[in-house]
Amino acid sequence: xxxxxxxxxxxxxxxxxxxxAIADAVERHGHTVITRHLLADxxxxxxxxxxxxxxxxxxxxxLDSSELLIAEASGSSYGVGFEAGYVLGRxxxxxxxxxxxxxxxxxxxxxxxxxGNSHRFCTTYPYRNAExxxxxxxxxxxxxxxxxxxxxxxxxx
Length: 157
Hints:
The structure is a single chain. The chain is an alpha/beta fold. The chain has a single domain (2-143), classed as Rossmann fold (3-Layer(aba) Sandwich), CATH 3.40.50. It has 6 helices and 5 strands; from the N terminus they run βαβααβαβαβα. A 5-stranded parallel β-sheet has the order 2-1-3-4-5, sandwiched between helices. It is globular and about 35 Å long. The two termini are 25 Å apart.
């Protein structure tokens, strides 16, 4: 399964250690994290070789090709919110799933749209610590229903 792991690239990278742990868990389960490079310390330098349009088109193609979006949403990020909204806006047709994770201790600074998300194709979990996060992600991956993913054309030209 292709997994799009969303995390803050230009904003608060305080959730980076959690995102790396999530990526490791996903890969241990035999899935592919197609955005693994976003977890590198020098991601902004590497990404600066692309124009904004190239990043947009690439990321939309990756979102279209993923069965699951996992977002570490502890930091404020318009990009992560956009990605989750893009997938959920199509989920009724595509069967794609979204897993929104955030540090419960940072809950007061997490968007209420993230914390309160009740879309039927979305699971939101405020984790208490690294062990709690990994325990939840591992259980989620085991119990995840087989995707009925239909690869529709992108909504964008």
